[in-house]
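#lab-general

N.A. 3:47 PM
ok so I finally got the sequence cleaned up, no stray characters, all 140 residues accounted for. can someone with queue access submit it? mine expired

B.Y. 3:52 PM
send it over

N.A. 3:53 PM
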Amino acid sequence: MKSTSADTAYQERDVQAGVATGAGGRKARVRPAVPAGLIAGSYVLAFLLQVAGAPTAVLSVALLMRIVGCVLLCTSLFWRPWQKVTGVLVTLVLPAAANLLWNRELSGEGTMVLRLLADVLQLVCVVGGAAWLWWTRRKG
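B.Y. 4:20 PM
back already:
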């Protein structure tokens, strides 16, 4: 793609103003704390709603938060493509697989230890993945 004089002028203006630009000269519109916060906050919200005894339909709000966080992550300029794929796999796909495993195979009174293990796996994946994303973001 050819660069026009207007593109060059905008880039020079942004550099002089100290505005961070990412790949291809695009400006970052969402701060990196937003996707990481939505992803980590979704697990905390789901946990609090479960403790409060909220119906399953209300828990979908936490899932929606996590999906929005992953979408913002994928459109963000603060991470490289491989970091985005890893972040989505660790914070969305792996916890969903653990939850499906629990709902299909591990439900019952004799499997409380396995349920606790599945919850810990989800906690580590979601919050740990969001923390990893925060630490690996591009600065500046």
